[in-house]
Design goal:
Bound molecules: D-malate
Strand order of the largest sheet: 2-8-7-6-5-3-4
Distance between the termini: 62 Å
Structural class: alpha/beta
Number of strands: 15
Oligomer: single chain
């Protein structure tokens, strides 16, 4: 008799974005002619940068000829891409990494989930609230969540509240935790941490022998000074932080899939008997066992974003999305709503009008205007009373959505 992982039974029936999709599908059935504008899930809309397309076309030609064909590549990624990542994303910011500390993967979402595999089940996990739902879901699936308390939270997860009053900046946990998920610029609030704010977390992790899993999927959107693009810009972080970065939001790879995870060799984990182990070694073992590498063609495409033209092209696309976010910020602020984020991030986080509950707001907005947002509650209890828009749609659709919103608000 095959037993199932019963932790899955503890999960909500649908993952947040699936649930939203189901609701949109129901709406489509009821209103087949509605022209839906999606400012919900952060899926990019601009085509790939030309440099990426050309590099992938060349890679396909290589794959079509016997002399240049490639089969399995290195499980951890090709050095041509790893070297560029180290040079452009790290050395340029004063961070030195060796190639065996960078692991190419097929998306940061996969790594965010998979990384839990190399850590003991009894670790206490800390997540900020609100936050990207995969961290909590992964803790539940991995058997680390405990039971649901009277406050409808998981007993073994430490929720680090981020409040509007404190500018959505997370406060250090009072309880001692072992693994901390941080996502900055934050999904969903769009808020970025300054070097000083992030340093508090690095110091906490070192002091408590904890490990930070730092999700930097939106790093390419940082525009303000004094905002670290990588956690390794903070002294000591190489001893305690794993950083996950993605090409999805940076260069339009949501459909292609490519990301990387940095696991510095200085990070130490412990056995029950206090024996020290390099986490890098465990991650390498996991990747080489369970993964056969991201496709050569896709890695060539990712490499191309570091060329001179590639950099220019992807930065133009990011500017385009950030301009959409600025439009959302401007329009909704002018309606008197409280608006956060959207400056160092494509995500704009907004307080619902009339103190409306997030899901009710989501439904009303959808049914009255055919505009899709993500209800804040989907990112955690502290997100209730807020909703998220992204700047990833086209300029025309963003403007049209704002027009409908303004009209809906009677202005
Ligand atoms: C989001 O909208 O939060 C993201 O697109 C989700 C993801 O990257 O998986």
């Amino acid at each position: 008799m095959a037993l199932v992982n019963e932790n899955y039974l503890k999960l909500p029936e649908y993952y947040l974005f699936n649930e939203i999709e189901q609701k949109i599908n129901t709406f489509k059935v009821l209103h087949p002619d509605a022209s839906i504008i999606r400012l919900g899930q952060g899926d990019v809309s601009r085509p790939l940068p030309e440099a990426v397309v050309t590099a992938m076309q060349n890679a396909i030609v290589e794959m079509s000829e016997a002399s240049t064909f490639r089969g399995y590549g290195p499980e951890v990624g090709y050095n041509f891409l790893i070297d560029k990542i180290i040079k452009f994303d790290y050395q340029s910011r004063g961070v030195n990494l060796s190639p065996d500390e960078v692991f190419i993967s097929d998306g940061s979402k996969s790594d965010v989930g998979n990384i839990g595999h190399i850590f003991g089940r009894d670790n206490i996990i800390a997540i900020t609230d609100p936050v990207y739902p995969v961290y909590e879901n992964a803790a539940i699936m991995g058997g680390r969540s405990g039971y649901v308390t009277e406050d409808a939270i998981w007993s073994n997860i430490v929720y680090v509240p981020c409040s509007e009053k404190e500018g959505w900046v997370p406060r250090l946990p009072k309880a001692k935790v072992d693994i901390i998920y941080l996502c900055y610029p934050n999904n969903p609030t769009g808020i970025a941490l300054t070097k000083e704010q992030l340093k508090m977390w690095v110091d906490y992790a070192i002091e408590n022998k904890a490990i930070i899993i730092y999700d930097g999927a939106y790093a390419a959107y940082i525009r303000e000074d004094n905002i670290p693009h990588s956690i390794y810009e903070i002294k000591g972080a190489k001893k305690c932080a794993i950083e996950i970065r993605s090409f999805s939001k940076t260069a339009g790879f949501t459909g292609l899939r490519c990301s990387y995870t940095v696991v510095p060799k200085d990070i130490i984990g412990y056995t029950m008997y206090g024996e020290c182990l390099r986490v890098n070694q465990l991650w390498n073992r996991r990747i080489t066992t369970y993964y056969n590498g991201t496709s050569y063609i896709v890695q060539r495409g990712a490499e191309a974003i570091y060329s001179k033209e590639g950099q220019k092209q992807y930065k133009e696309i990011i500017d385009y999305y950030l301009e959409n976010s600025a439009i959302i910020r401007r329009e909704l602020s002018s309606l008197g709503l409280d608006v956060y984020g959207g400056i160092n991030s494509p995500n704009v986080w907004i307080k619902t009008p009339y103190k409306m509950n997030s899901w009710r707001f989501f439904e009303e907005l959808l049914y009255d205007t055919a505009v899709v947002c993500i209800p804040g509650d989907g990112f955690g209890h502290k997100g209730d009373g807020f909703f998220r828009f992204t700047g990833f749609n086209s300029r025309e659709n963003t403007e049209e959505a704002m027009h409908r919103f303004r009209k809906w608000m009677g202005q």
